[in-house]
Amino acid sequence: MPYLVYSVVSNTPSDAKDGTPIDEAQVEIFSVANRYGNANDLADKVRAALDRKSSTVSVAQGTVVVQSIHYTNEVTEVSADRKTYVSIQDYTIRIKR
Fold first, then answer.
1. What structural domains and CATH numbers belong to the chain?
2. Under a CB-based contact definition with an 8 Å cutoff, are residues 25 and 92 in contact?
3. What is the pLDDT of residues 31-44, one digit of tens each?
């Protein structure tokens, strides 16, 4: 600990006006730590790294253009059994294909 986990909740393709397909993915990022402050600190760093960013990313199939990343929500949960704190952030990511 601490560590991050992500989950793609949905991926919705759509066509843009110029004919370039755009996928809109809903992603959750889980910042996990053994202290409340550490989980929130990690989540703050994730948000600073991702929110309102755009980039071109190289992948095995070529390149992917990340048009935008938008932070939409955050909640913090406590797991008493595991003695962990989890900050869950939701993002909308627009990807040009």
1. 3-96 (3.30.2000.10)
2. yes
3. 999 999 999 999 99
